[in-house]
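Please check this protein record:
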Amino acid sequence: MQRPECHSAVQLRNRLTGNCDQRTSSSTQVKHRTTVQRSSSSLSASSPQSARKPHPRPSDKLNPKTINPFGEQPRAPSAFAAIYSKGGIPCRLVHGSVKHRLQWDCPPENLAFDPLLITLAEGLRETKHPYTFVSKEGFRELLLVSDAAEKAVPLLPRLIPVLKAALVHTDDDVFERGLSALMQLSGVVGPSLNDHLKHLLTSLSKRLMDKKFKEPITNALQKLEQHGGSGSLVVIKSKIPTYCSICC
């Protein structure tokens, strides 16, 4: 027959059992809180708000491809950019409230075209400001001087490959600058350009298939014919048979 436990022994055992249960419950609660905190941290780290990119500044829209020509470049600059940053182009960009302009170190009439005109033509392939503006406007203004024809004609064999590189460029803006420069050059040198046209018309023929360039290329071909005469028409028709002469 078993002897009944005394009252004090029963109380002691109950206290020990209760403390063990409390410790087990407390440990479970700590583990639960730790798991919840880790889960919350993981969710906040992967939430869209934490990964959200900063809003673009309003000034980014003014010149989205602007570059500091005199600052450190992340990669090797182009030939034109290197020349410009070293002061090799005798003009500087003046920012205006309405439009930009160039300020020349001396009157363009006093400048030698070799190699400045070729360097500016090479700059037509640039895609960042201020190089895009300096090359395009500098090329245009240099061809406006009174003796531009006699200075430009001897440079045509070296100038045509540079213009061709702009006309075959994949960037649409570069192509448009090259097309504009070609029309300006044609207006200055006239029929002297005819012997070189065949090197340029292939790229124009390919772009002519693009609807957005059909009108500007057609206008350019008409300018080439107007300035080059009947000799230019023969060359144009040989490369672009679908072209309709302005004399028709």
The mean pLDDT is 82.
